[in-house]
Amino acid sequence: MKRTKLYGNRAERGQYGETKSRVTLTVTQSAIDLLDQMAKDVDLNRSELVEQIARGMLEIKGGKLSRQQAAK
Question: Contact at 8 Å (CB) between 68 and 58?
């Protein structure tokens, strides 16, 4: 996985052509554990897991992740 270079508090434009913004989500510890396990299963960090799910690159069916053939 390509890492984005950090400059101070700003990230260089990465693979998506735009900088990422820091957000805060409030979820239960169980949800954190599930997200961490899903991220580990596909060799991503938690943030990239959420990014790829939001972009339609990964899909969750029955609690299992699957990669999409083409990003939407």
Answer: yes
User: How far is residue 47's CA from residue 20's CA, in Å, rounded to a whole number?
Assistant: 10
Residues facing 10 on adjacent strands: 7
Cα–Cα distance, 30 to 28 (Å, whole number):
5
Tokens representing 19?
A: 């900088």
Whether the CB-CB separation of 56 and 68 falls below 8 Å is answered with yes
Cα(42)–Cα(67) distance, rounded to whole angstroms?
9
Three-state SS at 43: coil
Cα–chain center distance at 61: 17
- pTM of the predicted protein model: 0.72
pLDDT tens digit sequence for 7-61: 555 556 778 889 989 999 999 999 999 999 999 999 999 999 999 999 999 998 8
